[in-house]
Amino acid sequence: MSYPNYGPGPYGQPPQSHPNGTTILVLGILSLVVCTFIGPFAWSMGNKALREIDASGYYYDNRGHIQAGRICGIVSSALLILMLLFVALGLTVGIIGAASEGDY
């Protein structure tokens, strides 16, 4: 026997978890701890999930996890950019130093 669907009822539907919430949080934490190269992925997935949550108008109980993963992704992306700038600076100084050794 099946029961008819009477809708959400007077109290609304119970909150659900966004399907990518845990993935975004794990990617954000791993981007800080293990590999900074996955930070931009956590950042972009977090932005997309937050847009989906805001557009749906529905309450998700793991919005804080998504925001935390997104923020970790932003911090990791900033650290990645700084690291790449330092590597580029080191290579530039090394190339200029090697080129100037032959001028003696």
Automatic annotation (TrEMBL):
Identification of the protein by name: DUF4190 domain-containing protein
Chain segments annotated as transmembrane: 20-43, 71-99
Keyword vocabulary terms for this entry: Membrane, Transmembrane, Transmembrane helix
